[in-house]
Design a protein that fits this description.
Helices cover 25% and strands 47% of the residues. The chain has one domain. The N and C termini lie far apart (58 Å). The chain has helices at 6-18, 87-94, 159-171, 179-184, 186-202, 220-228, and strands at 22-32, 35-46, 49-56, 59-66, 71-76, 81-86, 104-116, 119-134, 140-153, 205-216, 231-241, 257-261. The protein is globular. A hairpin with a 2-residue loop joins strand 1 (22-32) and strand 2 (35-46). The protein has 262 residues and is α+β, with helices and mostly antiparallel strands. The chain has a 12-stranded mixed sheet.
Length: 262
């Protein structure tokens, strides 16, 4: 019989937790720009791959993120087509509109705690400032402000794997919005991506978050965006499961037509 030493047992435990898969079900409620609605989302994470399935009303979409391959796949289930985005090239393009050096982010403990999904979560005050340029180089400068409060659980099941995925994505400068939408609102897309990067630094999973995004700055574009008002979102995690996931979830179906986008 093989005898296990304490270091060996600990090493095995760390290895097992590092390769755990995570399924997260969440509900997001948003309002702003004259619109409001609720979206249900299921997120699957396996190492540095993620699959997101979002549904709002009758509309639904599926996106696969492969950080190592630097690819984002947006599936169209009706047409059996998939838009393939080279995220390395897209990140470089976005850097012309959003300067990483100009981003300021802070996630500060507010001293409050609450129980979410049966786990103790610490409250954090979030403030992210992202200078951006509408219309590319030489365009109109606008500053996007993201503020809010998030309740983060560090020891919850799946939290370490959640943080590891977003840390890996942040190192490559990933943005998780649909690239077509991100091109139209690069500051907002970068602010949201930066928020996930800050979650990863803390090393936990946000079980509940309330965020506001608004524009600030001088000039007609900034004034127009400010007049339109901001966007507010509340996201609540409904369940977290760490059961193993099938690799097929993170692969494009063989009968889908690939369409390269840029």
């Amino acid at each position: 019989m093989k005898r296990w030493t304490l270091p060996a047992v600990l090493a095995l435990a760390v290895s097992a937790s590092a390769t755990a898969d995570v399924t997260i079900k969440a509900t997001a409620t948003g309002k702003g720009l004259g619109m409001s609605g609720e979206t249900s989302n299921v997120t699957y994470i396996k190492g540095l791959k993620m699959r997101s399935e979002a549904a709002s009303g009758k509309a639904s979409n599926v996106t696969i993120f492969d950080v190592d391959a630097q690819k984002m796949y947006i599936l169209n289930e009706k047409k059996k087509e998939v838009d393939v985005w080279d995220m390395g090239a897209f990140t470089q393009e976005m850097s012309q509109a959003v300067s990483v050096e100009g981003v300021r982010a802070s996630m500060t403990p507010n001293g409050q705690t609450k129980t979410v999904l049966g786990h103790a979560a610490d409250g954090y005050t979030v403030e992210i400032v992202v200078p951006t340029v509408i219309g590319g180089p030489g365009g109109m400068p606008v500053t996007m402000l993201l503020t809010g409060v998030s309740w983060i659980a560090k020891g919850a099941p799946g939290a370490a794997d959640y943080a590891a995925f977003y840390q890996g994505a942040a190192e490559k400068g990933w943005i998780f919005s649909d690239p077509r939408a991100a091109k139209g609102a690069p500051g907002q897309a970068k602010a949201m991506a930066q928020m996930y990067a800050e979650f990863a630094k803390i090393g936990g999973m946000p079980l509940e978050s309330q965020m506001d995004i608004k524009a600030d700055g001088e000039g007609p574009i900034a004034a127009m965006m400010a007049k339109m008002g901001g966007v507010s979102t509340t996201t609540v995690i409904d369940s977290v499961d760490t059961a193993p996931l099938d690799d097929a979830l993170f692969q494009v179906p063989a009968d889908y037509t690939l369409k390269a986008r840029q």
